[in-house]
Amino acid sequence: MGYGRGLIVGHWVTLRRFLRTFLVGHGRTMKRRGGGYQPLDFWFGKKVRGDEPTIQQDATTEGLFTVEYPDERLPVYERFRVLPMLVYDDVDGNVRCTSCNICAKVCPPQCIWMTHAQGPDGKPVPLPADFYIDMDVCMNCGLCAEYCPFDAIKMDHNFELSNYERHQTHIFSLQDLLVSSEFYAKTHPDAYDSADEVTERNKVAKKKDQRLQKALGLGAKPASTVRPVAKVAAAPPA
Amino acid sequence: MPANLLDEPEIGEESKKQYLWTLNFGPQHPATHTTLRLVLDLDGERIVRATPYIGYLHSGFEKLGEHLNFNQYVTIVDRKNYISPPMNEVAWHNAVEKLLGIELTRRCQYIRVIIGELSRISDHLLCAGAAALDLGAFTAFLFAFNQRELIYDVYEEMSGYRFHPGYTRVGGVMQDFNDRVIERVRAVLRSLPKAIADMEKLLFRNRIFLDRMRGVGVLSKADAINFSCTGPLARASGVTYDLRKDEPYLAYRDFDFSVPYATEGDCYARFQIRMEEIVQSMGIVKQAIENLPGGPVNVPIAEKFPMPDKGTIYNSMEGLIQHFELIMPNRGYETPKEEIYAAIEGPSGELGYYLVTDGTQIAWRTRTRPPSFIHFQVFPMMIKDHLISDIVAVLGSLNIIAAELDR
Fold first, then answer.
1. Option in B160, B311, B314 nearest A142 (CB)
2. Per-residue DSSP letter, B301
3. Most buried residue among A107, A187, A211, B28 by CB atoms closer than 10 A?
């Protein structure tokens, strides 16, 4: 028995791990632990990109457990932070950013820079004309989002940012950074519903809309805020 | 060639130079873990003299501390000892809060204890696992790394970043612990004992492991004190010095734990100390997470220096003014013009910061007292008269992080 025993035990451990990968579930004979694709789905039930199933993986996960990225994904934590994003309000279409430069000041590697918007009479308007973040310099520390006094910068969850060219694609402009508050509410449900942010929205949004309309006259917005403008056209003029 | 390899070769000074030959160990040797370089004078395979060279991973972290304010610099201290980033953050803001005279809230103290002890566990797991890995025991390393993943999950849930959390702030933390974070901490505590039992089963009675660790790299108690060694390295040599007990900071007075020590001073003793400290740290985390106090996590804005939270900024004029004062470079509050030193018990020894301030919100000088730098000095002495293969065992038991060594 002596020498062969270790070999058999070793193979048994491997077999047990393989069997533990699957549960005997309700209705199905074999169910992969943690959700995601089941054995036959890899050939017959594949989802399109952007609709991939997420998998739960934690300390209790057993068996041969591999997340088949990019066909499957792990759930993203709400506080997960990659690049900053700029939020605009869905209701009135205003960009929350007032180009106050606080984020640019506090950024440790100094990767944010922006230009102020000007009204038709040449006066400054509390809007960014353009807003740049060099994503290769950004160290994802989240200090800009923390210091922003207008809830305008939030940290995005999108981590698939690789590209072939650096100078054209890796310097994010205002157009690349803008997201709707609806999108933000979907990715950060807890933070969106927190008491702080609710007060901020109720208090500031209305006032800001009036101020902007006044500064710009007749609701004309800078050309750079194309997406919000489409929303403003539908909204009743102040 | 002498009969006994450990005897000094009987050759004259003149012919010694030709007799010994020189070997570069590192900076790209995989067993040096990062970029450490040793120049060895060898007699056969016996080490006659070892000269360490540092600076291959010099990144100017201390200089950056002269350009970034107290909250910004926390992103840099993470990158020093990257095996246990939260411990660096706790050490840095411990020094800053000593300078500014800020007393933390109970909840914040407990949270910092939890993240500090979790990072100590992850550091010890990696060090003990890598020590085994360098001696050929790959499985134990993977058991250790599996647990480190769970601790990374805690970091990511609490701060949003796995490797460099940047979690602490002046007078508090970035975001409060929520229920999901606490559940993740509990998950770590549930699965750790099994992993440690697995590691111990694999290594503690492993003949090869014991033969290569026992009696290798002995550091005497006198040497440990003379070279100002701290942490597991000193405790394995019989120096029962632990800042958590000797100069309790944060909330360490509240917890019941013991400081393990050994008297052998060899690699095996250090390995055992680390494994025992994981168990003790687990006890501290357990006590802290079960008795986590409620209440606010950040100090009130009357303390001047802490960043007010969003609710305070939006709902009170004082908060808005404070936010403005902290951000405007030509305004802001004055720091005391002082020089202070504050240290905590890091995973591999006393981790301290020496701060010199000139009244602005940016320190004039931030000097780190890294345990790696102190421990790298004893290294040549410890490997003298050993064989080349023992370098790997000794280095693995010292836990030298080059980023912290060179800064």
1. B160
2. G
3. A107
B154 and B11 part of one domain = no
Does the beta carbon of B168 lie under 8 angstroms from any beta carbon of chain A? no
Beta-carbon-side half-sphere exposure of residue B145 (alpha carbons within 13 Å): 10
Residues 3-32 of A with CB under 8 A from B: none
Q: Does A183 touch chain B (CB under 8 A)?
A: no
ipTM for the whole predicted complex goes beyond 0.85:
no
What is the distance between the alpha carbons of residues B34 and B348, in angstroms, rounded to a whole number? 16
User: Using omega within 30 degrees of 0 as the cis cutoff, is the peptide bond preceding A124 cis?
Assistant: no
User: In terms of C-beta density within 10 A (0-12 exposed, 13-18 middle, 19 or more buried), how is residue B391 classed?
Assistant: buried
């100094």: which residue's tokens? A110
- State pLDDT tens for residues A58-111: 656 666 667 778 777 888 888 898 889 998 888 777 888 888 888 888 899 889
Number of domains in chain B: 2
Q: Are B177 and B91 in contact (CB under 8 A)?
A: no
Domain A84-215 listed as CATH 3.90.800.10 = no
Which range marks the domain in which residue B227 is found? 61-406
Strand order in the sheet with B349-357: B339-346, B349-357, B363-369
Residue ranges per structural domain of chain A: 84-215
Minimum distance, in Å, between the CA of residue A145 and any CA atom of chain B:
11
DSSP A56-77: ---TT--SS----TTTSBPPPP
Asked if A102's CB is within 8 angstroms of B327's CB, the reply is yes
Nearest to B390 by CA among B297, B279, B222, B267: B267
Measured CA distances, A104 to A112, B314, B327 (Å): 5, 21, 11
- B157 plus B228 within the same structural domain: yes
Residue with tokens 């660096």: B88
Which residue of chain B is at minimal alpha-carbon distance from A198?
B311
| Residues of chain A contacting residue B315, judged by C-beta atoms under 8 Å apart | 199
DSSP letter for B173, please: E
Cβ contact, residue pair B323, A149, below 8 Å: yes
> What is the pTM (predicted TM-score) of this model?
0.84
Residues of A in contact with B310 (CB under 8 A): 151, 196-197, 200
- Structural tokens at position B195: 């992993």
Cβ atoms of residues B184 and B150 within 8 Å? yes
Least confident of A48-52, A105-109, A177-181, B336-340: A48-52
Residue A138 CA: distances (Å) to CA of A101, A110, A132, A171: 16, 8, 11, 10
Outline where DSSP puts E strands in B1-45: 21-25, 37-43
B252 and B286 share a domain?
yes
Nearest to B347 by CA among B246, B270, B288: B270
Chain B interface, mutation test: which of A60, A82, A137, A146, most B Cβ atoms within 10 Å? A146
B264: three-class secondary structure by DSSP: coil
Type and span of the H or E element at B355:
strand B349-357
- What pLDDT sits at residue B276? 92
